[in-house]
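look at this one:
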Amino acid sequence: MTSGARFFCSDAARARGDAFRGTAPYSRVWVLIEYRRSWPANGFDGLDLDPEIKALVVSAARATRARVLLVRRPGRRRADGGDCWAVLRHDDSGALRQQWGTWRLDQDLAQIGHALQTPGERGRPPVVLVCAHGVHDACCAVRGRPVARVLSERWPDLVWECSHVGGDRFAANVIVVPDGVYYGGLDATSSLTVVEEHLAARIHAAHLRGFTTLHPPQQAAVAAMLDRFGPAGLGDYAIVGTVRDNDAWNVRISRVGTDGRVLDVEVRARRTPPNRLTCRGPEDSSALIYEVVSVRDG
């Protein structure tokens, strides 16, 4: 990079070949709040809403470990009508549940607190989120918005832009919820293939950051399985055991519904040299990455 050139963290990450497997943050519950005006850098926390309502939503989300994201339709700026909200849940049984509502007044968002205490409806199609939070990180807008646009042209009812989801340097980031699957390093072409395959229950390893229902070493282990045996659906692999030894893990995985094969995957963690990891952060920092050392029959 020449002196004075603008820094883009996703360009730098791609040039370094940054590993992104095992980088999906843990979550099973998401709160989506449609907000068509500008998003502050800190998302929902920065909105000018009734303090009591905001505190209620934050408290209810914290109690259920839910992640709160702002959303909007790509390229659409409706001038009237109410906005929507949703609670999406990937429960412990693997069931995928959703509950939707609308809001006009701040007080209407109090419904979210109740929705977080109820299971929700099964059988609805997933939601495809594309991080496009440019105020938080420039790469999310530069790389995310073109991806959101092309995906929304194909699946207009499923696709939303969303606020910060983590891993700015892996933009464009796409998250499918309540499935709980993170994809990174996408562009307009690859995103169409990834989402089409995901909707057909074929999750590939190539752009997979991880599953939000698993911990990072487990995410890396499942990605290794997909590398070896090809794409699979959400329930085609089950973690049946994880043993840690310092910075190494042995993850035992069963192939569900196929040959029932059990494999042991050894994963090791290491820190990278310090680098500038976001567009906004001027300080260099080290990243923790998870590398698969071996895959063997269990």
User: Anything to note?
Assistant: The chain has a mean pLDDT of 93. The longest strand covers residues 262-271. Residues 29-183 form one domain. The chain is about 25% helix and 30% strand.
